[in-house]
Fold this protein.
Amino acid sequence: MIASLNGLVARILAVAVLCTGVIAVNTTVAAAQSEDVPLEHVQLRDDLIAAQESLLNVYRCRFDIDTQQVPGGCRDGEPSQGSTDPGAFTGTPTTNDILVRDELITAQEALLNVYRCRFDIDTQLVPGNCSSKPDPVLLDVPETAFTAISASLSSTCGLRSDGRLHCWGSNATGLPHGSSARYETVAVGHVHICAIRLDGTLDCWGSNDEGVVSQAPEGQFVDVASGQWLSCGLRDDSTVQCWGFQGSGAMIAPDEEFKSVDVEIDYACGLLADNSVTCWGLRDYVWDNAPSGELMAIAVGPNHVCGLRKAGNVHCWGMDHLGDLYEVPKGSFTAISSGKDYSCALQEEGSIKCWGYNDDGILDNIPHGSFMAIAAGVSHACALREDGAVRCWGSQYAAA
């Protein structure tokens, strides 16, 4: 969709440039309502109207708004009938034909700008750059570049390009600051952290509730996930091993081949080799109605789970006691992460969409711009830009 979207924007800009001179010419001509005008002046306007209507329909389908205005409706987040055809003008054009089209072009542009500001897309095309939209309230974070991030209760860790780890937020669990150790990946839990060293072995620290630190297994791992009293690791042979809270039922992972794993308080979910999802542990009321079919990624929260399908759409399931978790935005996404009662996902062009419960302004303060990774904590979230800069928002307890 991004390629088609960029193409529509470029088409509109190109036609608009051609129309600029033509409109200036017709400002003088318009005084004589009976005077005929060149056919090409009408055709250029019809091309611009069709291009802008096509872009309006793309926005409508992508963000699930005013979809009743889309001819043929929407399918998989896109207009089912494709772009709008400008058609051919018949007859002798007059200045009235020009004026009617100019009014429509102005109305279209106004609506396009409403969509752009509301959904934070193509805002560089908006005069004033959506200046009426309040700036998001962001948390203080380290001013350094990271390659990966992980967030949980009130803490965040960022992994630097040299493998060093920097963590910030609530330091009640003794999070290390400026450790000289080198890691490949990190998983922040509620009161503990686990990371994979460069040699593939595990390193866990923080609160040892339920033995979640001291029981970290030996051997080689390629990924790790941490919850409250539970962690699970993906071994290099694609099996999953979990440790920590003995009473959760999540200690024993299914004897399957996995692609990824994610955990929360007392349960875990993983993607199998065939891209289906399986879950285990307590809270079966959360995960028992997991969808069938293929998923490309999963994100586990305390009370719900969200999955990213191959087409880029999001499917969530679990306990929606606040009534907002199933209001998943339409569109195509590339990454997803789940917090306590909300989730966030990255759209194809890198912007962020969040939905669910608006605790601590988690839905009101989403940062603008393009991001490459997203990490949702319990009541704060962080996102990673392509230049390695981090933006966090939500609970002030998670500030640096």
Remarks:
- The first strand starts at residue 74 and ends at 75.
- The helical segments are 2-29, 39-62, 95-119, 284-287.
- Confidence is low (pLDDT under 50) at residues 15-34.
